Amino acid sequence: MQGPFGRRAAFRYRAAGFLLLVAHLSFVCWLTLRPVNVPWVSPATLEPLATIRADLALSPWSAARSIGGGLLLLAPLGVLLPLAAGRVEVYPLASLVRTAFTGAMVALGVALLRSEVTGQIMNMDSVLLNTAGVVLAHLLVVPAVRACLRRRAYRRRTAPLPRDDGAQAPTPTIPRVGIAPWSDVSSGTRT
Questions:
Q1: Per-residue confidence (pLDDT) for residue 185, from 0 to 100
Q2: What does the CA dihedral 79, 82, 84, 89 come to, rounded to 10 degrees?
Q3: What's the pTM?
Q4: How far from 113 is each of 28, 32, 120, CA to CA, in Å?
Q5: Residue 133 burial (CB < 10 Å; 0-12/13-18/19+)?
Q6: Of all residues in the chain, what percent carry a pLDDT higher than 70?
Q7: pLDDT over threshold 70, residue 71
Q8: Which residue, 163, 28, 46, is CA-closest to 115?
Q9: Neighbours of 81 (CB within 10 A)
Q10: How far apart are CA 56 and CA 80, in angstroms?
């Protein structure tokens, strides 16, 4: 975005993205890092897809609830990370890779912190599901929003400038030059 209005808008988008990102991560920490009182705790699950297979074996409702919860927990990061970066003109694959990597690192960090809390365990499937949720949210929302912002910026750049008196400026016209009237000047005679 160019011009002073574009810079202000980009700053507002970045600030809003950063504040929402901090708020969401605070909520995730509050939700996942609370101690749980249970009579026993299962060991850490470091085998990929083991918990997902166990949930699918129990019941479809249990599987949908645990898999859906895993996908949705960090999914807003897929939108909030690019929003906090504030870039509209960016290569889509690079944005996806940066967002997926950051989402995976946040998911791994939450899982590691969670393993230190009483009653919580380290689960590799939660890291995989959280990362997949970030990627899916990014793919579903960010390209469409960036395209909309690019169209809006293009319209703003190509729109006619408003006049001070509130009236719409007339369309500029180019005067046409017609055929010149007959003249003695070209013949070289004077009258």
A1: 56
A2: -140
A3: 0.72
A4: 12, 9, 9
A5: buried
A6: 76
A7: yes
A8: 46
A9: 23
A10: 31
* The residue type at 150: R
Tokens describing residue 100: 């997926």
Structure tokens at 64: 């949908």
Residue in 107, 30, 116 with CA at minimum distance from that of residue 70: 107
Non-local (6+) Cβ contacts of 95 within 8 A are 82, 87, 138, 142
Q: Which residue has the tokens 């960036």?
A: 146
Residue 135: what residue type? V
Exposed, middle or buried by CB within 10 Å (0-12, 13-18, 19+), for 7? Answer: exposed
Q: Per the structure block, which two tokens stand in for 52?
A: 């997902």
- Name the token pair of 57: 């074996």
**Integer distance in angstroms from the first to the last C-alpha of the chain?**
65
Distance of CA 145 to the CA centre of its chain: 7
Show the 3-state SS of 4-64.
HHHHHHHHHHHHHHHHHHHHHHHHHHHHHCCCCCCCCCCCCECCCCHHHHHHHHHCHHHHH
CB atoms near residue 88 (< 10 Å): 19
